[in-house]
Amino acid sequence: MSRSGIGGSRRPFFAAAAALAVAAAVSVTPLASSASTSRSDGNASSTAAAVSERAAAKAVAYWTPARMRAAVPYRPKATPGAVASGAGVTRGAPVSVDGRNVGSAASDGGGPVAEAAVAVPRPYTNAPDKFNGKVFFSHGSVDYVCSGTLINNPTKNLVWTAGHCVADGEGDHKFHTNWVFVPAYNSNGGGQNPYGKWAASSLHTRLPWLQNGNFRQDVGAVVLRKQGGQTLGQKIGGQGITFNAAPQANYSDFGYPHAPPFNGQSQFRCNSPLVARDNPFNGAGPLTMKINCNMTGGSSGGGWVVGLNAQGVGHVESVNSYGYTNDSQHEYGPYQGNEALNLYNSVKNLAA
Length: 352
Hints:
It contains five helices and 23 strands.
C-alpha cells in the first residue's frame, strides 16, 4: 500500500506481498514457525502459541538467502479514531529492565535529532546495532519481513517486536509461521549474518491485538530457542526495556525498512523527540506515540530506544507499529504501559 498521511490511510510497517485496499477515508498500514493453537499464558489479556522443535528446525532451514531477499513487508490496516493530544493519560508505576553488552564495543552513536532515516554504519557487530535484527515469517503462502530487538530478560532469550509481526490481528487471527530472528542481518553488506538465524520457541502478543487488531496494543514478544546449549542473549547481551515511562523523550528508532526508497538490506536509524499522541483505534489501551521518521514497511517492530549510554545500551520504550499513507515523515508506536508490562511479565522467565 502506498503511504498517503494523517487523514489518509494507516499502514503497518512490516512488508506484505500485495497491497491492501483502503477501506475508509483514513486507514492505517503496519510498518512490518509452525505454531500450535493459541493458549492462555496466565495473563487474561495476553495469548501465546508454542512452536515445536521440529517446526523450529524447519523454519531455520526454510529461510535461505534467496527467500530472505524475496520476502516482503506485512501490512495490516485499521480504522482510526480521532487524533488526540494525550492529555490526561494515566500511567502505572515505571518499571525498567537494564540491558547489557557482551563481547563487543559500542558503536558511535546518537547524532542530532533528524526526521530522515540514516543508514547505520557497517558492520553491525557493535552495540546497540547487534541487538537489532530482521524478523522473517510466513502467513499463508506469503513470506514477510519485520524488525525486532533482542532484550536482556532474565532468561536471555527474548525478542520484542510489534504484535502484527507475531500474529494477524485483522484477518484470520492466527499466529505467523516459519518465524526466525536474524540479529545484525546483512552486517557486512554481502549477506553476512554474524550471529546466525534463531528460531522461535513460542510467540506472544496481546489479545486486543490478536482478536481486534487494536493498534494501541500492537506489541509482541518471541522466546527464542537455544543453539548449542546457549541463548542468544548469553552470546551477545541484550537491550534494556521500560514500561510506564515518560513519553516525552528523545528516541533512537531502529529498523530494516524494505518498501521504497529502501530495500530491506540495511539497518537504519532515526533520532526524534515525541511529536504527538495519536488514537489509531477506538479500543482499550493508552494513546499511541508519534515521532519524526521516514522509514517504511519492513521497519515494523523495530525498537524506539531511550537513554543510550557509552556501552550502546538503553531501554526500548516503544516499537514501530503503523504510519499514515499520506504522511511519509512520521512513524507511530504503542505506549508501553501496564498492558505491555503484563505481556513482558508473562514471558520474561520462560525458558527456550
